[in-house]
Description:
Radius of gyration: 13 Å
Number of domains: 1
Oligomer: single chain
Largest sheet: none
Shape: elongated
Order of helices and strands: HHH
Structural class: mainly alpha
Helix content: 55-70%
Number of strands: 0
Amino acid sequence: MRYAQGGGLTDAGRAAGEWIRLHAVGRFEGSEKNREIAAALRVSEQSVER
Length: 50
């Protein structure tokens, strides 16, 4: 199945994903471990590693 640009997410869903990515970047720059970032942002460690 193909999704339209945006992966089938609503504007709110895309904005939430972008918020998580931006906060993860800030935590990476602060030298936090992947496990800590994942717990704080409530995502999987695998998502943080990607």
